[in-house]
# Entry
Amino acid sequence: MSGRFNIVLTAILVVSALSLVNAQYQARRLFIELERAQSLARQLDIEWAQLQLDQSTLGKHARIEANARRDLNMIALTPARTQYLTAGDK
# Structure
């Protein structure tokens, strides 16, 4: 009876040890996955900040006006060049 009891206790001990090893492995795997996700989040935050900076630079009035003058040969509107149309009397 004592031998059988020892075998049962040994089996329980082995199962507990394997369960502990498995739990530690899962914890390490999840920690590595968390670190990768946090690294990706930091990288995406940096990219987002860069895109916001690019957007603010590209949207400035002076840059848009310079591109319109250079690429489209546009010039600023002045009162001397403005033509007003009036409805004719019939």
